[in-house]
Amino acid sequence: MIKMKQSNIICFGEMLWDMLPTGKQAGGAPMNVGVHLKNFGLNPQIISRVGNDELGEELLHFITSHGLSTDFVQHGKTHLTGVAKANVSDKNEVTYKLVHPVAWDYITHNEAIEKAVEQADVFVFGSLIARSQESRETLHYLLSKAKFKVFDVNLRSPFYDQETVENLLKKADMVKMNSHELSLISDWNEGILEEKSAILSIAKRFNISTICVTRGEKGAILFTNGEFHEHAGFEVEVTDTIGSGDSFLAALLTGLLAKNDPNDSLDFACATGSLVATYQGATPFVSAFDVQSFLNERTIK
What we know:
Layout: E1 8-12, E2 16-20, E3 23-27, H1 29-39, E4 43-51, H2 54-65, E5 73-76, E6 82-87, E7 95-98, H3 111-119, E8 122-126, H4 133-143, E9 149-152, H5 162-171, E10 174-178, H6 179-189, H7 195-206, E11 210-214, E12 220-224, E13 227-231, H8 244-257, H9 262-277, H10 288-297
Parallel strand pairs: 1-4, 1-8, 2-6, 4-5, 8-9, 9-10, 10-11
Antiparallel strand pairs: 2-3, 6-7, 11-12, 12-13
């Protein structure tokens, strides 16, 4: 059984509604990570922004119903709550069309938020929140105050560019990306390298101590403390992959913050992502006990 540690974690960025053929579902990677961290018994806070509209009120209700505080979720009068139109024709590779601009493009910093970030053990952020100037400036200001910075790369076309992503990599202590993002970032500087060579190159170039690359159904690879750890993944019947990567990151952080063995942490994270993929939506309630039961019942592919 994986050990837990009570850590204070800030998740900064977008919260929105994914518009699916079956209806709308609450989403946004930072919020999804926060919900899964809460399910694992940690203490996350979300910094984001919603509009003064019905969709915003519904999002606030969603996060409070999952035990999360709305203290640092701002309310905007001039921009609507975020919406993403999801294409789920390929259940293994969901794509999104993101409305722009929306409320979370205008997150501002204040004394309360700054103090919360300074006191947090971990600050989690992604690249999408940097698509607009105001939220990008707030992000960079808060990064200067954070103790341990976790960059969930999460590239969404057309809202990224090399300069923005590399500036964020320079500020990160830990990075999680998928194999497509690894190839792209590697290609920007040295051409497409073999997986481990690309990870080592990025770690050295940007002085990053921990990098994890997810491989979809083929598991993940983790580089930390100068060593590689790999997991081949679990075979499951996929309902959809929405939120699987976010739950994976929450689980990996849960293990690494508690200083569990990296192999055990990666095992736990792969199991979590696979288990979430068997449900519909990004934030099914999956506890550490559920993940451990999943692990007990299955063998590695």
